[in-house]
Design a protein that fits this description.
It is built from 11 helices and 9 strands. It is α/β, with parallel strands linked by helices and 278 residues long. Strand 2, helix 3 and strand 3 form a beta-alpha-beta unit.
Length: 278
């Protein structure tokens, strides 16, 4: 059986296609294939698994995922990168589908009819918005089996933070109330071209059973109100939310506390009462 030709180095691909990272699109390219292979390995064995990737750029992580045996659906807005991705698809027949679109507008249920994983070196400018979108799906557990995502280190820390820490906030609660979230690895800024001004990190999230009786929209509104005025006491930040202060009293949660001291479980309990499932 004829073996496929070896893939050219990523730097060669980028040079040949005249590509450079687009700051407006939040791009930073990774060339270290050992590092990319480690990222692709975070969710476990991907042989034959469906994977969704956002912003593949010239295809560094895409290459690692394909070599791991995944069937990748990638969405890329940067038309400059499409020829390089097409070449990659030719090298891995029937394993890569590239969609020219905005990931924020894509309905994943329309792309996949089976469970899948999401792996991505997310563009910095849309990373948090995409995460919140995926965490806020009304159907739970979701169709995706895991999220393996690269963020700026500051954002990654917020996702996995515990209460009473500086990084803890709305993103921590939205990530942790129905997911297990962990910091899988850190990535030094020097690994990127061009090097960003900040360090990065990989966060891995897997769905867990959603607490019963909680409307995700209520929890989203509750955390928005609480952390929209982070330095204020709960009695101030939640006074405009119907029933919130009464819920605090019923749960014996001191309304003089600040939101960063309130645990994920306590926010869930408040949201349960506000969802009418006391």
């Amino acid at each position: 059986m004829t073996q496929p030709l070896a893939l050219p180095p990523l730097r060669e691909v980028i040079k040949r296609h005249g590509l450079s990272a687009n700051k407006a699109l939040g791009q930073n390219f990774l060339f270290d294939m050992q590092l990319l292979d480690r990222i692709a390995a975070v969710p476990g064995n991907l042989q034959g698994q469906a994977v969704f990737e956002v912003g593949p750029g010239p295809g560094g992580l895409t290459r690692a995922l394909l070599q791991a045996g995944a069937r990748v659906t990638a969405v890329e807005r940067d038309h400059r990168c499409l020829p390089a991705l097409a070449e990659l698809g030719d090298h891995f027949p029937d394993q890569l589908t590239v969609i020219d679109d905005d990931a924020l507008k894509i309905d994943l249920a329309s792309l996949f009819d089976q469970p899948f994983h999401i792996l991505s070196n997310l563009p910095y400018n849309v990373g948090s918005a995409l995460l919140v979108k995926w965490l806020s799906e009304p159907q739970w557990p979701p169709q995706w089996q895991s999220l393996t995502l690269m963020f700026q280190r500051e954002v990654a820390d917020r996702i996995v933070a515990r209460e009473a820490t500086e990084a803890y906030g709305r993103l921590s609660i939205l990530a942790q109330w129905r997911c297990e979230a962990r910091l899988a690895m850190t990535v030094h800024r020097s690994a990127f071209t061009p090097p960003p001004k900040v360090m990065s990190a990989i966060v891995h999230l897997t769905p867990k059973t959603q607490p019963e009786g909680v409307d995700p929209r209520v929890l989203a509104d509750l955390t928005q109100a609480a952390f929209g005025q982070r330095r204020k006491m709960l009695r101030q930040s939640l006074k405009g939310m119907a029933g919130a202060l009464e819920a605090l009293e019923r749960l014996d949660i001191d309304s003089s506390r600040r939101p960063e001291t309130v645990s994920v479980d306590e926010f869930v309990a408040i949201a349960r009462l506000l969802s009418g499932a006391a």
